[in-house]
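#struct-queue
[09:14] JT: dropping the first one here, sequence first, then the structure tokens:
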Amino acid sequence: MTDRDQVSRQPLLAHVAGDVPIHLVAGILFVLCLGLILESGVGRTGVESIPQNARIYFDAAVTMLVVDTVWQLFRHRPTKPVRHLLDRYRQRLADPQALARLPLLVIAIAFMPFFSKLKSMIPLFNDFHWDPVFIAWDRALFRGQDAATALQPILGYPLVTSSLSFLYHAWVLQIYVGVLFFLFYRAARPATRQYFLSFVLIWTVIGFALATAFASVGPCFVGPIFGDTTFDAHMAYLQAADERFPVLTLNVQHQLLEWYREGKGGLGSGITAMPSMHVAMAQLTWLAVRRISRVAGWWFFAFFVIIWIGSVHLGYHYAVDGLISVIATTAIWAASGAVLRAWDRRPTNALRGEVAVPA
């Protein structure tokens, strides 16, 4: 190996070393998840869904590349567009910090199938018995009313409901486009490591551990699963609204219920209300984006609030589901930052001052 090769490898190895805490935490979580799945004897481990998840990430990457290409040509208006694009993307592909993020992309691709499998297994670990408690908590917060009922005078218009359902579906972009953005775009680097460590912890701690401890199905499912009529009137409104403007979430709820009854555990399956992963991921994106751009931070804060309100109005969650998610996500974000700052303070840290997580 030449001296030049050694020099070029040093930044790459240094950046990989900076991500070691994320690799360790993700590795431990993978082992624990796999152990729980194998111990339960359910057969499939979730690995079979990894190619499907990889395809979604690939599609997201292609879409982002097309958008970025158009933006670069519009912004720079080069006289030789092909040469300009080749030089730009060749430089990006050779960036040591971008190359160092490839293992994190592999983790993201493999992580969601394991999480979906565990989510579908929650009934094996705990019965769904917390719904009455959360109904009571919501009523305590909203002066004796259910949260959805209290919000109905403001949101109870079919066009508003349909719009909220569209935004609730758009949330999934945070998982795929969001991960790719934070891993590979230069502008996102001040938040990348804290975002990704929080990402894997949120899905595991909030999405599985807390969801299992406080197992509940949520307003839209207490009727079909338990025969509880508490939210029948609100679900009837959603069905009526869907006849005027499409309420996209109703089809998803129907599919989730069918998968639950059939015991299927594919990518995106499983029923759980407390805490709300929609709220948790929307908050995480806001926390990370506001470190990059103050203006964009306000937009993503608005999206975070809309997702929380939408989770209640669309029948997925109790208001307290989002509240607990906010508390837990805030704690995980702070803990992730503390872990990474401690790692960056190592005497041998070669990236001191370059990618250090701000306090």
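[09:21] JT: and here's the second one, same format:
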Amino acid sequence: MPVNTVNFSGIKLNTKKESPCSPKVDEDFRGLVIATPDGVDLAEPWQDAVGSDTARPVLPVCGTIQLSGDTTAKFLSLTNQILLVAVDTRTHVSYVSNLLQKGMTAQLAIRPTPEQMEDAKDRVDTFFFNANAFHYLEDLPAAPARYHVFALLGDIVSNLRTVEVVGKGTEKSSRKIAPGEVQFGKNARPSAVAADFRGVHIQPRVQGWPRDGGAVWIDGVAQLGIEDAAALGVTPVQKALVVTVSSGLAYRSWNPAGEQALFVDDQERQGAAIRGTFSVELSKAFSRSHGEGVYVMFSVGKFLSNIVFLPPLQATK
């Protein structure tokens, strides 16, 4: 099992080498794990950072990725394709960026042959990153807030960390509205989950991402315990919904509710659970990378959904 370290002193931020804050993992661990402080102060200086504007505050996010070689080979620019996501726990506005340094061009690996993929199965690859979230997430407001922070790499998702940002700051976040049709409550087509399920579950209506501009609907349900639903601070729970999509080095994350009017009965109580259903159309909000499929994930507060992969489809005649 992965174990987060708590030593954030003496690290060089915005690097991709093992450091004192790199989470330690067992030999048999496969996946992505991050470590962050529980809180950061906007006034705390941090001089030892690569490429950072010294006027920006610091929120260290250190990560360890350990994968089998054939999984590594799926990514043509692995350490640059890592997505860092921060969601404001009060406004439910999300901030996202990959770890490609500004102004740099990613060097893409050559796509491996099936024989090379087979030969790589027994290899274990380990990678690290030490990111300042305020550097990569350039629109992250320098103001007091609480964030849910996690990282994504294709269909691999990290643990979630909650970070309190304190100190003086006046920057305000703006709600990001993405185009596309959204349906909630009785108008949505929920995915089926068991009565005791707690979390977020999604499913696509299409088998892949169409090349000819067809609709891409994702149906889902957020089913939370009463206390967890109340902790979101919004009614209905779909107001806290965040979608994150990625394809190669392209990415986007937003709150589908935006400024749209939602109603109390868009959620319903079923026994000891609060249930909110949704359907979101993605094609007008996101353009996939050339030749790549699309990874889709939703979150509601601290709950992260399953990840759906939509391979590219051929154009219809």
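[09:30] RK: nice, looked through the second one.
[09:31] RK: DSSP finds five helices and 19 strands in the chain.
[09:31] JT: good to know. Residues 31-166 form a domain with the Immunoglobulin-like fold (CATH 2.60.40).
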